[in-house]
Design a protein that fits this description.
Blueprint (H helix, E strand, L loop, with lengths): L9 H27 L14 H14 L2 H10 L8 H22 L6 H6 L6 H29 L7 H24 L12 H27 L6 H32 L2 H11 L9 H18 L2 H5 L1 H27 L15 H34 L1
Length: 386
């Protein structure tokens, strides 16, 4: 089946070349960062996690969202999700690889990653986060490939794969729960010190992940003869809508708790994000833009007639995805560092090196998803012609 990814239209080849070019530029800058050290980034003494870790946090949620097609299909026999399940699993493969690469580049010296493996610390949340991410990557790659291979051979999937399918469902929840524990277990950071952080992570994941999957499926329909099915896409749209409502509700709970309790530490991060603090307000425009996107996206997604129009649906899924990305990919991590333990407000701005390395990691993820989707489309088109 791999040979299906090695050929394609001219547009497909151009897209691959563009991705490889971006990856090449990113690799060169990563070598430069490795030689010079993390001083070439915008991070420092007060901001020790920047755009690398914020993207890792966001993408873990996108990867976990594959469970939203796996669970209904395998546990509740929702047959409409059958044709698209492999696309959800392959999307998870690409996003988990990106998660791991963002951790890799954030380490400064890449060989430090081996310390987690060679010298495991079992009471470290980071060790368990690495464990669940690697396990989830393996599960989705094996399940997706075996299921697709069985479809290619027109045979039933082997029975031994079913336990792995069922295991992948709680495992998907675990990867974002453990990631939330990385932050909520830090008592010195009030913005993260909340028991509701893991539910917030999962709600945003189940909004952003299926939103991205809908966009990808609409692209698949446009560039191939495979039709994911209107009902499957509309069901995913409902999941996006209600998950986003839950995500916004959880955020409003945080706002109420912080300001009604009148605890300065809990209020300061939210003040910095939405109105500025001590004259510093770099993230304020982004957060209000995210709020407008979130409420606007929810409002229009609640109308079945608008959701049924797939042109509007693609735009609204992009709107919700962007709202989640700003909230979790910018505000959550960077806002958590404000104020510092010394009550200073130190703002962080990513450098060109960080932005290009981040872009190249996204290009790697896009390349993986593109190749896996090309194989899946090829198999499914064969079935259509048969």
């Amino acid at each position: 089946m791999i040979e299906k990814a090695l050929s394609g239209s001219r547009n497909y080849q151009i897209w691959i070349v563009i991705l490889l070019t971006i990856i090449g530029a990113g690799v060169g800058l990563f070598v430069y960062q490795t030689i010079e050290g993390l001083g070439v980034t915008g991070m420092g003494r007060d901001i020790t996690w920047g755009i690398y870790i914020s993207q890792f946090t966001f993408l873990v949620g996108v990867a976990a969202a594959a469970v939203m097609v796996v669970l209904p299909y395998y546990l509740h026999n929702y047959k409409q999700f059958g044709p698209i399940t492999v696309f959800g699993e392959f999307m998870a493969v690409g996003t988990v690889v990106m998660c791991q690469l963002f951790i890799f580049v954030d380490m400064g010296q890449p060989m430090r990653v081996l310390n987690v493996i060679l010298h495991p610390t079992f009471n470290s949340v980071m060790f368990w986060d690495m464990t669940v991410l690697c396990g989830y990557l393996g599960l989705n790659l094996v399940i997706g490939w075996i299921m697709l291979s069985s479809e290619h051979k027109d045979t039933e999937p082997p029975k031994w794969i079913k336990p792995f399918v069922y295991l992948s469902i709680p495992w998907a929840v675990s990867i974002h729960t453990v990631t939330a524990f990385l932050y909520s277990g830090l008592p010195g950071r009030h913005y993260w010190l909340t028991a509701i952080l893991a539910p917030r992570f999962l709600a945003s994941a189940f909004a952003a992940g299926p939103a991205l999957l809908i966009i990808l499926l609409l692209i698949v329909r446009k560039v191939s003869k495979f039709d994911p099915g209107k009902e499957a896409i509309q069901t995913l749209a409902k999941i996006v809508t209600y998950a986003m409502i839950l995500n916004v509700f959880f955020m409003l709970l945080e706002v109420f708790t912080a300001f009604y309790s009148n605890i300065p530490g809990h209020m300061h991060a939210l003040e910095y994000l939405f109105v500025g603090l001590h004259g510093k307000s770099a993230l304020v425009p982004f957060m209000w833009f995210a709020a407008i996107l979130a409420f606007g996206g929810i409002f229009f997604m609640l109308f079945p007639s608008i959701r049924a129009n797939e042109k509007y649906l693609a735009i609204l899924c992009g709107v919700i995805f962007m709202a989640c990305w700003i909230d979790k990919g910018l505000g959550l991590i960077l806002g958590g560092f404000v104020p510092t333990p010394l009550h200073d407000v130190v703002e962080y701005t990513p450098t060109f090196v960080e932005l290009m390395i981040s872009l190249s990691i996204y290009a790697i993820g896009a390349l993986i998803v593109t190749l896996l989707y090309k194989i899946a489309i090829g198999v499914k088109e064969e079935r259509i012609y048969d």
